[in-house]
Input
Amino acid sequence: MKTELRKYAKYALIFAGVAALTSLVLGLIYQEFSLPVQIGLGLTALGLAGAIILDPGALKQLMSGRQAKYGSNTLVLTVAVLGILVIVNLIGYHNTVRWDLTEDKTNSLATETQDVLDSLDINVKAEAYFSMLMSRETADILLQNYKANSDGKFDYEFIDPNENPLAADEAGITRDGSIVLRAGSAKEVVTFVNEEEITSAILRLKSPETKRIYVLTGHGEPEFTGNEALNYATAARELEAKNYSINTLNLLATNSIPEDAQVLLITGPQKPLSQNEVDLIETFVAQGGSLLVMYEPSILTEFGELEDPLAAYLSETWNIVFGDDMVIDVTANPVTTAVAANFGSHPVTEKLNSMVSVLPTSRSLVIGTSSGFAPSMLVATTDQSWAETNFEALQNNEVGYDEGSDQLGPINLALAAENATTGSRVIAFGDAEFPNNAQYQYYGNSDLFLNAIDWLSGQDEMISLTARTQTTRMLVPPNRYVQNAILLGSVVLIPALIIMAAIIVFVKRHREV
Output
């Protein structure tokens, strides 16, 4: 019976070896003593114990004689080397020293960033929300640099929003790859992971200030709460995560704009504002306030033939003119969807050149010709579009470009203007639906809306980092003769030398015997 059991000992050893190898691979993958690694080591121990129980004679033979003597010496040396490696790693882990040996210091933080970190008098914690679908390598390297150069004032962790949705929801995360920076109760959200954005967010955390936004109501505007498709709850959550305070304002009831208001939003009114409301808004903007106006095409509202004092104010004061039309874009489906494919040179759009935004129903915007401000184009359609003025044809689904009355693309979909003297800023969009719950996550819609709010509230001012001088390197391949020599040496010469050395050793040992 014992002989029969002894033959299974080798299978127990194989099992132990596989378990040990699996534990090693899992340890390298997870980089921690995780539960799978612990289970693997436990199975390894069980396999070894089983082999000893099934064939104790083999263990006794192994522990005696010359093999045991040399084997014990090898074991002592192996344990000593492993011990030294563990001690060196522990010393390195607790005493981190980093060297950037690249010629142009590619892996070093800018001087301005280092100055900000040196002056930190608060502890900053970064929460990087990256799912398994989003590469975290670039972010990890950058955050490691911040941590290594902060003298213990900066730390970070990665959180998978799919595995921890409660944390992501509490942080106001609406997109994969966002980083939340926290200092006490203050926080800043970074959606573009680069050094400039993170350093600027740290600067804002050093002097946190809640930016107060007021949303005009009383004219049939969609709400900034509720999950209905036309509301703006998703955008509101992301704004609040960026330390904005969103408040409603009914000028018909209060007859005044609060003194702490920084930005006033007018988002998709169904009926025009009164002249008294526009007078209050004009005074607010003239005193340095900022204004965002998002209008829908008049065919989709109840404006009718009513006068629109707000449109008149924007036209006369800011040279921003709303067209009485609807943009038709033949590159989109449906064609009433305006694709914002062209971006102007402006802080709102400087990071959007690799994206597009989709405005479901939009009217055109035209730069006026009166003296005064010269608005900047933010976004525009391609030349495969026009501004349709025949509303009857729109209702009958019979649109077509009319050279006499329709404006041919590119069509302006958003304009921005600024008064350098007072600091007042104004942005106008020909669509009010692109940042609503149904459209917010499409393409660059969320970035376009958030960038507009940041610019209006003065949060576009980023720290200017010293540009690094890039070293241009060129690999010059060797000529044909050198390539042949390398091939001959690696494929023929080196293996031949190894074989010759083996033959010499074999012959010498054979003669000694």
Remarks:
- Residues 480-512 form the longest helix (33 residues).
- The CA atoms of residues 188 and 242 lie 5 Å apart.
- The two ends are 43 Å apart (CA to CA).
- DSSP finds 16 helices and 19 strands in the chain.
